[in-house]
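Batch manifest, entry 17 of 40.
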Amino acid sequence: MTHQPRTLIAVDEGEFQTLIDKVDKLQRAIESVTMSARPDWVTIAEFAEMRGKTPKTVRNWIKAGKIETKREGSVTLVRV
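Output type: structure tokens
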């Protein structure tokens, strides 16, 4: 196994501490994330928010047959 020579760089102590603080903050944020499976069906409003569109646009897509829907009681759900 061969060793590569290490390159050293000079960094201002204050800037280095700022970088360490940012890395620590990022690590805490990552560790606090809870992941869950995306649902198969969502409401029109949820689908619109996911797509960055208005609920009216989503309803127009539904009328045009562009997206799949189903009814649960009085609620229309859209397949994600």
